């Protein structure tokens, strides 16, 4: 049985791996020249069930409204005539109640915990190397009020099996001595000892090699113009090189999934949210952090990959525009220098901006569609690195007719 996976990001490649493990013949198709060149290219690098909170919360509408006239907001809305953005925002706002926020967060953390288990098993089985650090992550707070709010929200994660610890400033420095310079600005932190970090692109490239040994074919430089169907079955995907046919098809194109799905009558609630990252060299003369984390008051994340230190920030609703300029990174770099003044060579940045495929609920779309041989594994948002191995295993179970280990309520379209 030939399965065609559309998309060679981390979701597509992990899907290809699990399907190949089931004995399927798999072909991965992507418009780029290699794997992990879109959202997976330079993301935050955090495998973070401890940061599973949904973005749709009672506080989010005020933050979005303020972003229209004030810069520096964690969520930034750029007004557009795009009707798909407005439809997405309307659904997002409906999820901003306390009850829905709690329900969506509970689903999200359960998926993230399951997915991390799959990632760890895969890493051990295939001996994958991707600058992994498994010493937990810090969720850092700069003032007492925000720290108290963070601690009050912990219960939704701990009730769903996640281990979390609260640390005062001295305990934070004991965990991460590189924060010494910022001692006076630290109110405390929430520490998740089981969280991790690692280079998602490097992981995906290593897994590609494993997939190829399993017989998976990769077709690059091949844009997909449309998915063709007859009745309730997909017959192939149209490309400049012709029609690619198969028995089953998996849509794993992230932010671009809803564009191709529209012609088939689907209205996938996925919209791109732009994020920014800056990566710096960190040599022996520098003092980078030993573990990753998030500055919760500025929503700036950091992660170390060998002799590189990366910072990521911002969630900007700007459509499919990935353009950026140095000024866009200024707030992020101010926070980086405050936290780790000698953490890296800040004069040699590698800037990047990419699109997170967000659903209003914050959980991905997995599984069957109205077309009998079309399946979804898309919409992972800012947690694709954390979720991908789990959603790939879940989809493989669905396609094989097995009962999934996780309840997929809220994550399907059927």
UniProtKB/TrEMBL annotation:
Pfam families: DAO (PF01266)
Endoplasmic reticulum recorded as keyword: no
Keyword Flavoprotein applies: no
Segments forming domain FAD dependent oxidoreductase: 4-397
Gene Ontology molecular function: D-amino-acid dehydrogenase activity
Classification via InterPro entries: FAD-dep_OxRdtase, FAD/NAD-bd_sf
GO CC annotation: cytoplasm; plasma membrane
Record keywords: Oxidoreductase
Family: Belongs to the DadA oxidoreductase family.
Protein name, per record: D-amino acid dehydrogenase
């Amino acid at each position: 049985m030939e399965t065609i996976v559309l998309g060679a990001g981390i979701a597509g490649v992990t899907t290809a791996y699990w399907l190949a493990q089931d004995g399927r013949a798999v072909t991965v198709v992507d418009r780029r020249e290699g794997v992990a060149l879109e959202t997976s290219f330079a993301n935050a690098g955090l495998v973070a069930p401890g940061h599973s909170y949904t973005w749709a919360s009672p506080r989010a509408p005020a933050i979005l409204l303020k972003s229209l006239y004030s810069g520096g907001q964690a969520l930034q809305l750029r007004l557009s005539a795009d009707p798909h953005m407005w439809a997405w925002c309307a659904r997002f706002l409906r999820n901003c109640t306390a009850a829905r926020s709690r329900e969506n967060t509970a689903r999200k953390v359960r998926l993230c915990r399951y997915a991390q288990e799959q990632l760890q098993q895969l890493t051990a089985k295939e001996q994958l190397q991707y600058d992994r650090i498994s010493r937990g992550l810090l969720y850092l707070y700069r003032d007492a009020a925000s720290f108290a709010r963070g601690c009050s929200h912990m219960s939704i994660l701990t009730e769903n099996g996640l281990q979390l610890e609260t640390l005062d400033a001295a305990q934070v420095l004991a965990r991460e001595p590189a924060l010494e310079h910022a001692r006076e600005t630290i109110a405390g932190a929430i520490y998740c000892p089981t969280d991790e970090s690692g280079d998602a692109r490097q992981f995906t490239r290593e897994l590609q090699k494993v997939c190829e040994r399993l017989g998976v074919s990769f077709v690059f430089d091949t844009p997909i113009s449309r998915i063709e169907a007859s009745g309730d079955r997909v017959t192939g995907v149209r490309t400049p090189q012709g029609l690619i046919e198969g028995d089953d098809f998996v849509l794993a194109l992230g932010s671009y999934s809803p564009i191709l799905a529209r012609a088939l009558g689907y209205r996938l609630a996925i919209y791109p949210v732009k994020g920014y990252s800056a990566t710096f060299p960190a040599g022996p003369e520098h003092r980078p952090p030993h573990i990753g984390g998030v500055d919760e008051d500025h929503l700036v994340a950091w992660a170390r990959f060998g002799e590189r230190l990366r910072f990521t920030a911002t969630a900007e609703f700007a459509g499919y525009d990935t353009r950026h300029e140095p000024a866009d990174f200024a707030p992020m770099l101010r926070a980086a220098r405050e936290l780790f003044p000698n953490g890296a060579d800040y004069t040699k940045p590698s800037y990047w901006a990419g699109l997170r495929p967000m659903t209003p609920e914050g959980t991905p779309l997995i599984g069957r569609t109205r077309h009998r041989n079309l399946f979804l594994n898309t919409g992972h948002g800012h947690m694709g690195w954390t979720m991908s191995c789990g959603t790939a295993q879940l989809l493989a179970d669905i396609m094989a007719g097995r009962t999934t280990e996780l309840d997929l309520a809220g994550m399907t379209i059927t």
